[in-house]
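Can't paste images in this forum, so I'm doing it all in text. The chain is below; anyone willing to post the predicted structure tokens underneath?
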Amino acid sequence: MPVEIIMPKVDMDMSHGTVAEWHVGEGEMVKKGAALFDIETDKAAMEVEAPAEGRLHHIQAQAGARIAVGTVIAWLYAEGEEVGDPPVVATPDNETTRPADQPEHPPVPDVGAATTGADGVRQDGRSSASTPARPAPPVISREGEVEGGALRATPAARALAREHGLDLAGLEGSGPRGRLQRQDVEVAAVQARSASGSQALRPAWSPQPGPLSITRKPGEGTPIVLLHGFASDGPSFLPLEKALGRGRPVIRIELPGHGRSPRRKVESFAALARMMVEAFDEATAGQDKVHLVGHSLGGALAMAIADVRGRGIASLGLIAPAGLGPEIDGETVRGIARASREDSLAPWLRRLAADPATIGDDFVKAAMAPRRDPALRAAQLALADVLFPDNVQAFDLRPALRRITSGEDNLPVAILWGRHDAVIPWRQVLAVGGEYGIHLVDDAGHVPQIECPGRVARVLGRLMNAAGSAP
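Text version of the structure:
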């Protein structure tokens, strides 16, 4: 039987989600865990991974469609499995029918009905419809645990709670329908140690094997390679990608310990730059030229890459880049990295924008989703200790920028900075030699690609178009 792809529910208040972009086309093969599609709520965006390996067929919601949580939007077929008409699905009145391409009023699960996880898989394998007049029966979770009004927790969470002597009744669960996950107990254990004065405040983490995450979106023309900043991820560029136009090919590379990239031990900025150069070479193999865009720490890494791979880069766009001076708001950097709850993350995220209202609750929820993993937070804090010790930038990319813009290749470069950036002062760029354009964005802070993606896209578009027509 084909595997249903469901519009997932990523927070308790979500009733609908917008399909922002499919990473896999009709009939294409995808591996389990690979990026399948992006969803968008408010200004937040996140990737949904494939729940199984298979070929994608019968896509019911194209990019831009707003779909109710729990709605089947596609199916994955195993290799060799016969593909016919779209499978029948259940409607709210429990009758079966063929799904429409764009349902005007898709079914919305009622309270107590089957829920979906962030991976897009229905938790109990049944229809998302339920009858309000009749209470839902107990649900058998994927962990094999009965949930029917009693405390909901996975076996791993219960075992870890017993190990640390924690009472599950006082904890908040992050899983479907509020079920307690192992990571929720890990967070509580760290907080308990902190309250008791223990010195072991950071969870242990171990380096992971494997290459850095590279996501490709097809299109026409010269590809755009995007490098995100510290404590961010590839999907954070979605507003800018939309503003640039969906027809352009895009390549996202995620930093170690960010997004879907494995956690790695990083000894220095130079070591991190070598990792990113290796990933850049893999991502751009077979390409004559690419446009390179980096934000914040990603901007510093973009300069490091351009310094050694300049001949393969058509243009370089830097958004609030690190590495052009020692000053940085290290408290914000570490505040974001160590935040274990939405209410502790939100104030730090809102310091990134000129108008704090730009960072809405949906954005905070999306940013917090991967940060519930204590090991990820610990790995990012370790990276911050290396790159930003004593609240300064411990690396200097000013010589690299001068070489890039003044050398034989004279690479076209545009630097964009929000006038109200409270994390990295924009005036740092004024002291760096070389030939490049400086664009100060009014009413923007440290994340202009999120605050005003249209204005950033216009600058980058002019840069790319000029580079493409240069002799």
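The chain is about 30% helix and 20% strand. The longest helix spans residues 453-469.
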